[in-house]
Amino acid sequence: MAKRDYYEILGVSKSASADEIKKSYRRLAMKHHPDRNKDGDQASEDKFKEAKEAYEILKDSEKRSTYDQFGHDGLRAGAGGRGGEGFGDIFGDVFGDIFGGGRRGGGPQVFRGADLGYELKLDLEKAVSGDTVEIDVPTQISCDTCSGSGAKKGSSPETCTTCGGVGQVRMQQGFFSVQQACPACKGVGTTISDPCDDCLGRGRKRKTRTLSVKVPGGVDDGDRIRLSGEGEAGRNGGPSGDLYVELRVARHKIFERDGANLSCEVPVSIATATLGGEVELPTLDGNVSLKVPAGTQSGKVFRLRGKGVTTVRDHRQGDLFAKVAVETPVNLTGEQQELLKKFDASIQKGGDQHSPRADGWLDTVKRFFDRIS
Description:
Layout: H1 6-10, H2 18-32, H3 42-58, H4 61-79, H5 87-95, E1 116-122, H6 124-129, E2 131-142, E3 158-159, E4 168-173, E5 176-181, E6 190-191, E7 204-215, E8 224-227, E9 243-249, E10 256-258, E11 261-269, H7 270-275, E12 277-283, E13 286-292, E14 301-304, E15 320-327, H8 334-349, H9 356-372
Parallel strand pairs: 1-9, 11-15
Antiparallel strand pairs: 2-7, 3-6, 4-5, 8-9, 10-11, 12-13, 14-15
Helix pairs in contact: 2-3
């Protein structure tokens, strides 16, 4: 009887990735494994064996290539898969990641150092122009006394006798073969009988390091700078982690920032807003003169092109938006109050000629009350 196509057995296409093949086999294996079919369903057992054989070939890139070119005959010609592998071993390959399984061999395990975070506060001017800042970062560094081994000078770590230096032990739990970190060496693969006096066998020491951080011009609040390899030192010779510097831009006394644009509020006197004039307006590049037309109302926004900032993602200069706030005089003298009353009376005589918004609003209110009365 001709063998079925391996891709058809697993229910995947010939272009399926290794992960897709693995997932499909896992699903079929869990469904048809003999331990899940206690009634001795021969058809289910045959499907399991068939799926297992297909997976053994397609998970191996060389065997898969041979099968794709020559089919089953090519495998029989000498490129066949492993024989005699038990259910526990194949399931260790497929399900090891679920139960904490790791590698099957090699030297002692190494561990990458932890990534660190640092919050760097900047004022708006420094964020816009860029700067080089020195920061102090508490971290774990490799012990220079023992060169990170954890063993006292003149000695060295010994291969763990429990796991044989692998860092993991395999435990059989019924049908499953599960790998877990070695309880004796905590997954390192070595033990230390004579620990270093400085680091007490840990291979690392806590130290505050001074680092120089180059802040590019145009950064904004919440941006992060990654310093590769400046995190905590790794264990057992592993690589160091990274340091992520998160930027916090302090609130400015004058400006608010929105990307490349700035905005501010400009107090203008009643006389200047009424008669027109010029006011001095600050920018990050120095003061400029803002022309205020006669009759300018409070809330009017003027746009000064090119007076904003650039960003790290776009070097085009933004704009500055200046919002007029007409300032009401306070603490008037008696004479000033009398003059203001006379001025107001003359304005009211002119009606909408001088106060079109107020006069129009009063007419609207009158019509509203006439309608509901």
